[in-house]
Specification:
The chain is of the alpha/beta class. Helices cover 40% and strands 16% of the residues. The chain is globular, with a radius of gyration of 27 Å. It has three domains: 53 residues, Electron transport complex subunit B, putative Fe-S cluster (3-methyladenine DNA Glycosylase II, Chain A, domain 3, Orthogonal Bundle), CATH 1.10.15; 250 residues, Dihydropteroate synthase-like (TIM Barrel, Alpha-Beta Barrel); 122 residues, Rossmann fold. The longest helix has 16 residues.
């Protein structure tokens, strides 16, 4: 059971050093008890106290690492029920099913196609992470061979799906180096699968036929020292599956029920007759609250919208995505190339830079720090004022790279033109288009 703030306070050094970021050890203890602080923030806590406080300082939903390499994923570790309260930390991992009786050629073709499903968005590489290898006939040799191929010849990490111990052992022997997720321990095989997971240091799915029946299974595994667990309540009807996901998240966060304080897995592949419907269900579980979502296949039209949804949901709502302030050359500009300026909101940057790049016109793009706000919002908030923009142009070094003195400002910030001119005597301030889509024609006209 989690410790109270007073119980935690008794184990702290009581120096009130303020190095943790709060005025007193009591305040820090209260933050720790409510999940708003980390024990690592206290530089003077003793090893003995640290051990006793480990449970209290752990997030209510324990994080679990799955896989190795570039597509390694941590799931769980969440501290809030709603994203606007703070943020969600570990994005949903997406998996697609491959059956163990697949031919070698079909497996390699499928992996090659799936690996190509990578999309760039605001400077990030969006892609799925997992292959769920499903045992369909109990052939341990075929299962191991497919697992080894996936582990050796792709970046994907694995979910090994079988309830037959000898098949699972063969899969672990072939692909254990990729740290696969074992699926699944049930009431019938709990001891054997639990021992296998501990011996191989692997994460383990615990499956039951209800949320209530998960609790004795997870309690038994935790007593044996296994905390790298993922929960499957067994529900496959859509409404019930959503209710179970919400119930498990609420129990872990609101009731501090450690028996359910683990990431979850949802299987739309077993809930719908086609991939289109699976995708809709997967979108629901991405929002509430599937840590891992398993589809029957990956296709661009299915996985791309899910990856975008995931990006939006798991972006910190209190911290806009930004790019670094500075001078960005596009299309190999020279001393006569036009100069444009905009804010450092990531989406603004990638839209504007994409349009400039598409125009084929060599240009200089100046990115001013506006605390991650878009142009109109930044101007309204005083973060993209004329004198600030002018000072930035002076300091960024663009004057040393060009012979002309003309600056193109965004159309939505036309009101700052006069102030920029005052800050930059001798410069011509040109108001550009309001919409990024009109930039190519505008700068082509300037270059002609």
């Amino acid at each position: 059971m989690a410790l109270t703030g007073i119980q935690i306070f008794k184990l702290l050094p009581k120096t009130n050093c303020k190095e943790c970021g709060v005025p007193t050890c009591l305040a820090f203890a209260m933050n720790l008890a409510s999940g708003k602080a980390s024990l690592d923030d206290c530089p003077y806590v003793s090893d003995e106290a640290r051990e006793k406080l480990a449970e209290a300082s752990a997030p209510p939903i324990l994080p679990v690492e799955i896989g190795k390499g570039v597509r390694k994923r941590t799931v769980g570790g969440e501290t809030v029920l709603n994203r606007h309260e703070k943020t969600f930390y570990n994005p949903t991992a997406y998996a697609a099913v491959i059956q163990s009786d697949i031919s070698d050629s079909d497996l390699e073709t499928k992996l090659k196609g799936w690996n190509a499903l990578q999309f760039e968005r605001v400077g990030l590489n969006l892609r799925p992470e997992l292959v769920a290898l499903k045992d369909v006939n109990g052939d341990k040799d075929a299962f191991a061979k497919a697992a080894k191929t996936i582990a050796d010849k792709s970046e994907f990490n694995l979910i090994l799906m079988t309830e037959k111990a000898e098949v699972m052992k063969a899969g672990i022997a072939a692909a254990g180096f990729k740290r696969p997720l074992m699926y699944a321990a049930t009431a019938d095989n709990l001891d054997e699968y639990g021992a296998m997971a501990i011996d191989n240091d692997l994460p383990l799915v615990v499956k039951a036929d209800s949320v209530e029946n998960l609790i004795p299974l997870t309690d038994k595994l935790v007593e044996k020292g296994h905390k790298k667990l993922v929960l499957d309540p067994g529900s496959r009807e859509i409404k019930k599956a959503l209710e179970d996901q919400v119930a498990m998240r609420r129990a872990a966060l609101k009731d501090l029920n450690r028996s359910l304080g683990f990431p979850t897995i949802a299987l739309p592949c077993e809930m719908a007759p086609n991939l289109e419907m699976e995708t809709l269900i997967a979108g629901m579980f991405t929002a509430k609250y599937g840590s891992i979502v398993v589809l029957s296949d990956f296709t661009g039209e299915s996985i791309f919208p899910l990856l975008l949804e995931r990006l939006n949901i798991f972006t910190d709502p209190q911290r806009p995505m930004t790019v670094t302030e500075g001078v960005y050359p596009i299309n190999n500009p020279d001393e006569n190339s036009p100069i444009l300026v905009t804010t450092n909101f990531a989406l603004t940057y990638f839209i504007v830079s994409g349009e400039v790049e598409g125009s084929k016109v060599p240009s200089w793009l100046l990115i001013k720090d506006a605390e991650g706000l878009s142009v109109l919002t930044a101007w309204a908030a005083g973060k993209f004022a004329g004198d600030d923009v002018g000072m930035f142009v002076k300091k960024c070094g663009i004057a040393d790279k060009v012979k002309h003195q003309e600056l193109i400002i965004p159309g939505y910030a036309a009101a700052i033109a006069g102030d920029v001119e005052e800050e930059l005597p001798g410069w011509t301030i040109t108001v550009g288009p309001r919409e990024a889509a009109h930039i190519p024609a505008f700068i082509k006209g300037k270059a002609s």
